[in-house]
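User: I'm new to structure prediction. If I give you an amino acid sequence, what do you actually give back? Let's try with this one:
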Amino acid sequence: MPAQGQLFHPRGGRARLLPQRNGGYQPGRQAVTNSCVSVSLKAMVREISAGGVVLRRTPEGWQIAVIEPQKEGVAGVPASSRQKTSQKMLLALPKGLVDPGEKPEQAAVREVIEETGLTAVPVTKLGDTKYVYVRTWGDRARVFKIVSFYLFRYQSGEIDQIAPEMRIEVKRALWIPLADAVAGLAYRGEKDMVRRAQAYLKAHSGL
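Assistant: Good question. You get back a string of structure tokens that encode the predicted 3D arrangement of the chain. For your 207 residues, that looks like this:
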């Protein structure tokens, strides 16, 4: 989310890279060599974002906090990474740009609060997703984006109790069963982060 005093701009764009199984992206047909890709990436604008996989244990089992963005063209997430399904809702993990002077983990904590209304405690870093998208506003620059995701344990707060200005980006926030998250989330990289969170839960039963 933009910091107070900053002008809001969308975070979306059309991807020029193709998704891989590991949640990353490989060059499309126009990229011919790895060296060309490396030079191209160095010349690109870079964006660093952070987000969270927020979990809580209930009598019915583990739940995860997700958001339904206002627009399907979620900024900074390539359309090619979205699974083609017949689902009516597009669900995503809370995330946003890292502000100047802010650490990714701090940004993830802030984004979780801003986009879901929840206060959560960071547990561990799950990993990064990396991709390229083209800005659909302003300079239409190609952007190399890195999103760091962290696992969080829910602490307090009411889901979807967010500031009115946040409704520009977030239509609503909601809890869904963790078991349904991989199928329910729209983006492959975020699905992978949920799988990592599930693996962490299996290895750390005391969470």
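You can read the tokens as a compact description of the fold. Here is one thing that stands out. The first helix runs from residue 34 to 43.
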